[in-house]
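Re: beginner question about structure tokens

> Can someone show what the tokenized structure looks like for a real chain? I only ever see the sequence side.

Sure, here's an example I had lying around. Input first:
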Amino acid sequence: MSKRVFVIGDSISMHYGPYLEKMIEPACQYDRKRGAQKAEADLDTPAGANGGDSSHVLAYLQSEKGKGQLPFDLMVFNCGLHDIKTDPQSGRVQISAEAYENNLNRICDLVLASNIAIIWISTTPVDDERHSTRVKVFSRYNRDVIRYNEIALATMRKHKIPTIDLYVFTATLGPEAYCDHVHFNNETRKLQAAFIAGHILMEQNLNIVGLGDQKS
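And the corresponding structure tokens:
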């Protein structure tokens, strides 16, 4: 019987998602937070399939659990890029480091209590110069990505949750991987999906069938 895998994350996960779905079939049944069309309307303002920051992810999962709707075996999740959004005037981060850690702990407790396995995916790199020249409404800094990834890694270790280090993998692809201020081109999305798929299938001891034969 195939594993039911649920993905929740920001727009980065939306973009590699269709490739990931193909790569983990038939070993896994892929699903994610719904509403792709609504989310694509403005990727910087989370809605629909875009999970948003850690507070949004926690609230969504609390709501779904309250309705008895956590029908999956494995949750693969990430949040971070929206958490580190910084007001250019005040310097205030959208979700403080302390709140981020607390949210992650509560997410893990909620999901694990439902006997659902978890895999965490680290937040992808930010090119400070690229971001600052293209977006003026808010800022993001790679130093915050690193800091929040460190918080997340420590939290996942505490809960004995495996981590897929998409940050390091994506950083090796260089600046050509970007298509705008923070998102990635299609070739990079395929590579990210393959990297994640391999980890999911190995972590779950599932048979990797045709992973290298996937077509775009």
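Each token stands for a local structural state, so reading them left to right follows the chain. The CA atoms of residues 7 and 13 lie 8 Å apart.
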